[in-house]
Amino acid sequence: MDKMNVDEAASTAANVTVEPDTIGWTPQMAKKKKRKTLKDARPREYLTEREVERLMDAARENRWGHRDATAILLAYRHGLRASELVAIRWDDIEFQTGKLHVRRAKGGQTSVHPLGGKELRALRRLQREAPDGHRTVHAFVSERLAPLSVAGYQRMVARAGEAAGFPFLVHSHMLRHSCGYKLANDGQDTRAIQHYLGHRSIASTVRYTALASTRFKNFWKD
User: Fold this and answer.
1) Is residue 55 assigned to a domain?
2) 216 domain residue, yes or no
3) pTM for the structure as a whole
4) Is 6 domain-assigned?
5) Which residues are catalytic?
6) What CATH number has the domain bearing residue 128?
7) In the predicted model, is pLDDT for residue 36 greater than 80?
8) Which phi and psi (to 5°) does residue 18 adopt?
């Protein structure tokens, strides 16, 4: 390369503008940006009770519609994480007394929840309709009678959200948030909600009371 070409190359390199966003870029930054984009695509992180019913109606159209709708119902009524939902065993359910033994993940507090009539009827039907009459250990199982996987449950909820026509992305953890939001709006005690959801710290619970519109219902009187 002659001297003129060397000088031109040096001049071109000196005039290149490096965008600030490309400095220090890492794959982790890309993942954070993707997560932020997905979160921004949702106007909120919970569903109303009517929207949960709509989600269940969509799930009922699946091949295993009753199983899927029952899973959504229990996740919503008891604020269950995906891993907690798929871990439910038949011996966790007391049909005679109407109680559910809830084993929390992430070091949460184990508790016993009452089961409503709607849940008991759905669970009894689920038990009766077990594939080929087999009695399984877990309440929610796949076609091969293996426990339903966390990923499989999460995909089912996401697909039901799409089928229901929600204009935002629906994920399984929204059902847990929806439970907290519903209880807070019903005026339930914050400490009781904390124990119901198995939160180790009440700081995780106050997010729901902050969203409760009932706090402001007496601000204006017409």
Assistant:
1) yes
2) no
3) 0.77
4) no
5) 81, 106, 173, 176, 199, 208
6) 1.10.443.10
7) no
8) -95, 120
Q: Determine the pLDDT at residue 198.
A: 92
Angle between helices 49-59 and 150-163 (to 10 degrees): 100
Q: Provide the token pair at 137.
A: 């250990």
- Neighbour tally for 70: CB within 10 Å: 23
Rounded CA-CA distance 77/90 in Å is 17
Span 13-25, average pLDDT: 44
One-character DSSP codes across the chain: --HHHHHHHHHHHHTPPPPGGGTT--HHHHHHHHHHHHHHT-S-S---HHHHHHHHHHHTTSTTHHHHHHHHHHHHHHT--HHHHHT-BGGGEETTTTEEEE--STTPPPEEEE--HHHHHHHHHHHHT-GGG---SBSSB-TTSSBPPHHHHHHHHHHHHHHTT-SS---THHHHHHHHHHHHHTT--HHHHHHHHT-SSGGGTHHHHHH-GGGGTTS---
Joined tokens for residue 11: 């001049």
Question: Could you read off the pLDDT of 175-198 as tens digits, one per residue?
Answer: 999 999 999 999 899 999 999 999
pLDDT: which is higher, 2 or 52: 52
Within a domain: residue 193? yes
- How many domains does the structure of the chain reveal? 1
**Strands 93-94, 99-102: pairing kind:** antiparallel
Q: Residue 106 belongs to what domain range?
A: 49-211
Of 120, 131, 105, the closest CA to residue 73 belongs to 120
